[in-house]
């Protein structure tokens, strides 16, 4: 097999502990997300953090932009702990973070990590002073920091300096290359400044977010070569629905295949009233389909064709996929390795039996215009044929029995 078809080894990075979660240092790639509630509304924020954590978000970022938000953070942390949700909280600071962390020490302590944007901490002398305060607070409370550079808010003085240097160069860079250089320079210079102030490399995560897929790949490729800091991946303003999912998947898959990235977030714009946890599911599915982590049993299903004009197999595939994701909340607490289970729900006899045999558990429906008669395959062997009106319930029962008998029960810890 050509080496180009094999994923690169994970890039070596300095590990950063965020509460009990390790980013980088060879640890599994971490999935994170962010609330869109008003953080001052403790109850709404607690509910969304819990929703994101139950979906599988291993870190959850919350906006801390006002004194009311800062005052609410300790209560949010306490409420989450009371309901048994111990996911680490990351505070997202812009413009006034130096003031809020100084004025509200309980907030500074309750957060597991701070996220700051060097382009939004002030200008000139104030920038250096306010950035220093943020890092000093991180040192004081022993908190890691993500230095998150964004192409929409680059430090104008730093950008002007790089543009001037480029203009004087005998071989000037193009506009996009200048932007890439500015992003990387901002991140690395800010990290160096943080280290000068006293923040260790094991407390620094970097990100350089852009909205363009090709730009993101280029920037992180260069950044990865120039440092050993842990890296956070994600498109900024990825978009809504399929556009955001496709763009994020295209960009992150290339970088992950190259071994780049220690934690990811999929920044999807939710539809009005949409489920915020969708971005967590997309992040998990990217990592799982890339073979980098396993989160929930994968359900393979055919796209359908003229042989499957009945919606029966579509409804069954959807119900099984929802079922295993919901059940994983319970299964992951009780059994080891269930996330590696594979399922197949096939619509007709063309590829159905073969695909079903390849899965741990598979069901092959007969296609359209026929009474549902569906053979079930377990570990490659046909075990039963389901008929009638309760095929879905009976298939779920087979899945439950497989989990109970095939996966080792976790032992309770004292």
TrEMBL record:
<dbReference type="GO" id="GO:0051539">
    <property type="term" value="F:4 iron, 4 sulfur cluster binding"/>
</dbReference>
<feature type="domain" description="IspG C-terminal">
    <location>
        <begin position="299"/>
        <end position="400"/>
    </location>
</feature>
<keyword id="KW-0479">Metal-binding</keyword>
<dbReference type="InterPro" id="IPR058579">
    <property type="entry name" value="IspG_C"/>
</dbReference>
<comment type="pathway">
    <text>Isoprenoid biosynthesis; isopentenyl diphosphate biosynthesis via DXP pathway; isopentenyl diphosphate from 1-deoxy-D-xylulose 5-phosphate: step 5/6.</text>
</comment>
<keyword id="KW-0004">4Fe-4S</keyword>
<keyword id="KW-0414">Isoprene biosynthesis</keyword>
<feature type="binding site">
    <location>
        <position position="355"/>
    </location>
    <ligand>
        <name>[4Fe-4S] cluster</name>
    </ligand>
</feature>
<keyword id="KW-0411">Iron-sulfur</keyword>
<dbReference type="InterPro" id="IPR045854">
    <property type="entry name" value="NO2/SO3_Rdtase_4Fe4S_sf"/>
</dbReference>
<dbReference type="Pfam" id="PF26540">
    <property type="entry name" value="GcpE_C"/>
</dbReference>
<dbReference type="InterPro" id="IPR004588">
    <property type="entry name" value="IspG_bac-typ"/>
</dbReference>
<dbReference type="GO" id="GO:0019288">
    <property type="term" value="P:isopentenyl diphosphate biosynthetic process, methylerythritol 4-phosphate pathway"/>
</dbReference>
<dbReference type="Pfam" id="PF04551">
    <property type="entry name" value="GcpE"/>
</dbReference>
<protein>
    <recommendedName>
        <fullName>4-hydroxy-3-methylbut-2-en-1-yl diphosphate synthase (flavodoxin)</fullName>
        <ecNumber>1.17.7.3</ecNumber>
    </recommendedName>
</protein>
<comment type="similarity">
    <text>Belongs to the IspG family.</text>
</comment>
<dbReference type="GO" id="GO:0046429">
    <property type="term" value="F:4-hydroxy-3-methylbut-2-en-1-yl diphosphate synthase activity (ferredoxin)"/>
</dbReference>
<feature type="binding site">
    <location>
        <position position="348"/>
    </location>
    <ligand>
        <name>[4Fe-4S] cluster</name>
    </ligand>
</feature>
<keyword id="KW-0408">Iron</keyword>
<dbReference type="GO" id="GO:0005506">
    <property type="term" value="F:iron ion binding"/>
</dbReference>
<dbReference type="InterPro" id="IPR058578">
    <property type="entry name" value="IspG_TIM"/>
</dbReference>
<feature type="binding site">
    <location>
        <position position="305"/>
    </location>
    <ligand>
        <name>[4Fe-4S] cluster</name>
    </ligand>
</feature>
<keyword id="KW-0560">Oxidoreductase</keyword>
<feature type="binding site">
    <location>
        <position position="302"/>
    </location>
    <ligand>
        <name>[4Fe-4S] cluster</name>
    </ligand>
</feature>
<feature type="domain" description="IspG TIM-barrel">
    <location>
        <begin position="16"/>
        <end position="283"/>
    </location>
</feature>
<dbReference type="GO" id="GO:0141197">
    <property type="term" value="F:4-hydroxy-3-methylbut-2-enyl-diphosphate synthase activity (flavodoxin)"/>
</dbReference>
<comment type="function">
    <text>Converts 2C-methyl-D-erythritol 2,4-cyclodiphosphate (ME-2,4cPP) into 1-hydroxy-2-methyl-2-(E)-butenyl 4-diphosphate.</text>
</comment>
<dbReference type="InterPro" id="IPR016425">
    <property type="entry name" value="IspG_bac"/>
</dbReference>
<dbReference type="GO" id="GO:0016114">
    <property type="term" value="P:terpenoid biosynthetic process"/>
</dbReference>
<dbReference type="InterPro" id="IPR011005">
    <property type="entry name" value="Dihydropteroate_synth-like_sf"/>
</dbReference>
């Amino acid at each position: 097999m050509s080496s180009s078809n094999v994923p690169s080894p994970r890039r070596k990075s300095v590990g950063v502990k965020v509460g009990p979660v390790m980013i980088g240092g060879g640890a599994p790639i971490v999935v994170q997300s962010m609330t869109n509630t008003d953080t001052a509304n403790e109850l709404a924020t607690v509910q969304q953090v819990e929703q994101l954590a139950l979906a599988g978000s291993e870190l959850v970022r919350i906006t801390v932009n006002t004194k009311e938000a800062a005052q609410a953070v300790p209560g949010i942390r306490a409420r989450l702990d009371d309901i048994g949700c111990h996911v680490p909280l990351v505070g997202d600071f812009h413009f006034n973070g130096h003031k809020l962390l100084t004025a509200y020490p309980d907030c500074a302590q309750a957060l597991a990590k701070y996220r700051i944007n060097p382009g939004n901490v002030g200008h000139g002398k104030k920038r250096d002073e306010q950035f220093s305060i943020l890092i000093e607070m991180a040192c004081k409370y022993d908190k890691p920091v993500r230095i998150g550079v964004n192409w929409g808010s680059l430090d104008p003085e730093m950008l002007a300096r790089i543009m001037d240097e480029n203009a004087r160069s005998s071989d000037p860079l193009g506009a996009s290359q200048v932007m890439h250089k500015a992003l990387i320079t901002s991140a690395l210079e800010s990290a160096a400044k943080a280290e000068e102030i006293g923040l260790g490399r094991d407390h620094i995560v970097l990100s350089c977010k852009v909205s363009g897929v090709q730009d993101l790949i280029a920037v992180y490729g260069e950044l990865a070569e120039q440092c050993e800091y842990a890296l956070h991946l994600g498109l900024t303003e990825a978009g809504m629905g399929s556009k955001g999912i496709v763009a994020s998947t295209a960009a992150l898959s290339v970088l992950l295949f190259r071994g780049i990235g220690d934690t990811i977030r999929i920044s999807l714009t939710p539809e009005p009233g949409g489920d915020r946890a969708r971005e967590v599911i997309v992040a998990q599915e990217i990592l799982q389909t890339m073979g980098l982590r396993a989160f929930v049993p994968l359900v393979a299903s055919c796209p359908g064709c003229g042989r499957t004009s009945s919606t029966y197999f579509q409804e069954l595939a959807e119900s099984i996929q929802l079922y295993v994701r919901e059940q994983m909340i319970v299964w992951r607490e009780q059994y080891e390795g269930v996330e590696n289970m594979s399922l197949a729900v096939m619509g007709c006899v063309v590829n159905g039996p073969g695909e079903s045999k390849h899965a741990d558990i598979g069901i092959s429906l007969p296609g359209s215009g026929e009474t549902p008669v569906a053979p079930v395959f377990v570990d490659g062997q046909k075990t039963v044929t389901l008929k009638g009106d309760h095929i879905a319930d009976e298939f779920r029962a087979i899945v439950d029995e497989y989990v109970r008998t095939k996966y080792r029960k976790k032992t309770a810890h004292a």
